[in-house]
Amino acid sequence: MSKRILVVGAGFAGMWSALSAARLIDQHGSTDIEVALIAPEPHLHVRPRLYEENAAGMKAPLLDIFASTGVRFIQGTVERIDVDRNQAHVIAADGSRSTLNYDRLVLATGSRLFRPQIPGLAEHTFSVDQVDEAAALEAHIAQLASLPETSARNTVVVAGGGFTGIETAAEMPARLRAALGEDAKARVMIVERDREIGPDLGAGPRPVITQALEALGVEWRLGAAVTSVDANGITTSDGERIEARTVIWTAGVRASALTAQIPAERDALGRLHVDRNLRVLGVDTVYATGDVAYAATDEEGNHALMSCQHAMNLGRSAGHNVAADLLGAQPIPYSQPKYVTCLDLGPWGAVYTEGWEREVKMSGAQAKALKTRINTEWIYPPSAARAEAFAAADPLRIVVA
């Protein structure tokens, strides 16, 4: 009787999990283990690029890669996981419901932007979290010129001064001028509740970040949180009113809500605790990877971040290990001790750091060239050629991007 590995999610972690599992099964010559991947559509959404223009095109097709590597694609959404019966309850694209049995499950459903219950936030903010949301922001900016000229029309507020907030804000002055005219008095402001810009990025790259933002004309307000949003602006926790027709929310993400259906320990972000092989602690038939996994990267106490950099390698490891579990083969414990960041700073350039202390190694145009390669080459799916796809899915091929 054949066995099934079910991968839930077609993001970076899900795609690489499926390919890596298929690779090991192929190497063992097994014909009785199916690798199936379920997702709403057969595309990789290139989420790390959604702060850029042309967001609607930030997708990469996956059907040819899956076909060449023997991965079965199932179009649909998992609404419920029954770990006692090893079943996933699915809603298909046409609304019909069905049940999928599995022998092993790889949960790779990623994360979503966290939107707290702030008055007006849901109705009056934009985001760059998903393709459709980033495309809606782009369409909104394009039509600003049709509105009467006011300070609110010419102002963009980016709520959140973390990685995504900084990259988004750095793009906005040029995008506003392109929409409103080069002579427009465009204003871009970051509002960050922490006392420092880029609090999660640490002190290392901060001088470069502030230099770039100042050169781009981006302002920031620190130590103040957004307490309400309306169609014409925001109010902060210290009582300041900022008039803006464009408010972009970037403040934090949470793991997929499906993690709550796995009876296991989760961290404050909803990520499932996993062992070094990425098996969920206490649930032998379920592996977690990417943004839904709280996974140690090394022996020094560091854990993977919710980032493309970690998701790609977490996916390769999860796929190999879930297949090894069914094949009786040797697992390869997940390890990713090298950590880098490459932060896009818009027309000014970028900043590249290495290590968890984020020591700056490169900045300006040189770092921008590296960031461009990462965004346009390294994070995209491999060739659909079977041998090349399998080679790229090797869990020992650690990619730093």
UniProtKB/TrEMBL annotation:
Pfam families: Pyr_redox_2. Keywords: FAD, Flavoprotein, NAD, Oxidoreductase, Signal. Transmembrane segments: none annotated. The keyword Isomerase does not apply. This is FAD-dependent pyridine nucleotide-disulfide oxidoreductase. The keyword Protease does not apply. Residues 1-21 form the signal peptide. One of its GO terms (molecular function) is NADH dehydrogenase activity. Belongs to the NADH dehydrogenase family.
